[in-house]
């Protein structure tokens, strides 16, 4: 069985990893953005129709919201500049979802969300001719690999390698674009 690779070993820098995790999991909250879903539900319950409403978020005077918005803007611009495919890979890798998926796919660990979306996973799943949906098939193969099934183990190894390559390439592209944007903004 392949050694588990931690996302940390694939990142170009600790700052990039921290920024991406923050952007995909905490940025909206730190900028004071709130969902309007509650307001819409309230309007419907009160018989007011589906108009929705906007409730202004109180702004703090200490500049934390501005700092969060500035940070989010840089990250967003770097993600946009590195391309849609790389940005999607990074979103899958650094959102909160991979932690939840890692529990379902023990052999894939934190790379679970990326593994699901790899072309290799699609190919292997189709070749298996299973009646299971792809995610259920991957969960089963992951569990079989953990139990020592050599066929499942080689598939897990191949899937992890492809996911690691996607992540490493996307992280390098993001890092390059982020550095370019920082240089342009300073000079």
In a few lines, what is going on in this structure?
The chain is mainly alpha-helical and 187 residues long. It has helices spanning 14-25, 27-30, 37-45, 64-82, 84-94, 97-104, 112-117, 119-128, 134-146, 150-186.
Explain what this protein looks like in three dimensions.
This protein is mainly α and 187 residues long. The chain has one domain. The chain is 69% helix and 0% strand. The chain contains ten helices and no strands. α4 packs across α5, α4 crosses α10 and α8 (119-128) runs antiparallel to α10 (150-186). The longest helix is centred in the last third of the chain and has 37 residues, at 150-186. The protein is globular and about 55 Å long. Residues 50-55 have low confidence and may be disordered.
Number of helices: 10
- The number of distinct β-strands equals 0
- Biggest sheet record: none
Question: Based on CA inertia axes, which overall geometry fits?
Answer: globular
The proportion of strand residues reads: under 5%
Tell me the number of structural domains: 1
User: What is the string of SSEs from the N terminus onward?
Assistant: HHHHHHHHHH
Calculate the terminal CA-CA distance, rounded to whole Å.
Answer: 49 Å
What would the average pLDDT be, to the nearest integer? Answer: 81
Structural class: mainly alpha
Which range best describes the helical content: under 10%, 10-25%, 25-40%, 40-55%, 55-70% or over 70%? 55-70%
Calculate Rg over CA atoms.
Answer: 20 Å
Low-confidence stretches: 50-55
């Amino acid at each position: 069985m392949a050694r588990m690779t931690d996302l940390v070993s694939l990142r170009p820098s600790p700052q990039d990893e921290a920024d991406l995790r923050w952007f995909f999991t905490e940025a909206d909250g730190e900028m004071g953005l709130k969902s309007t879903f509650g307001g819409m539900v309230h309007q419907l319950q009160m018989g007011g129709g589906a108009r929705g409403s906007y409730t202004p978020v109180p702004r703090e005077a200490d500049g934390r919201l501005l700092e969060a918005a500035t940070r989010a803007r840089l990250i967003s611009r770097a993600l946009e500049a590195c391309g849609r495919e790389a940005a999607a890979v990074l979103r899958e890798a650094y959102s909160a979802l991979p932690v939840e998926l890692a529990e379902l796919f023990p052999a894939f660990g934190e790379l679970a969300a990326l593994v699901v979306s790899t072309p290799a996973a699609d190919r292997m799943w189709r070749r298996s001719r299973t009646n299971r949906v792809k995610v259920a098939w991957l969960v089963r193969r992951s569990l079989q690999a953990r139990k020592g099934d050599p066929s499942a183990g080689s598939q897990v190894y191949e899937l992890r390698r492809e996911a690691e390559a996607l992540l490493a390439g996307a992280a390098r592209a993001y890092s390059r674009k982020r550095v370019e944007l920082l240089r342009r903004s300073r000079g």
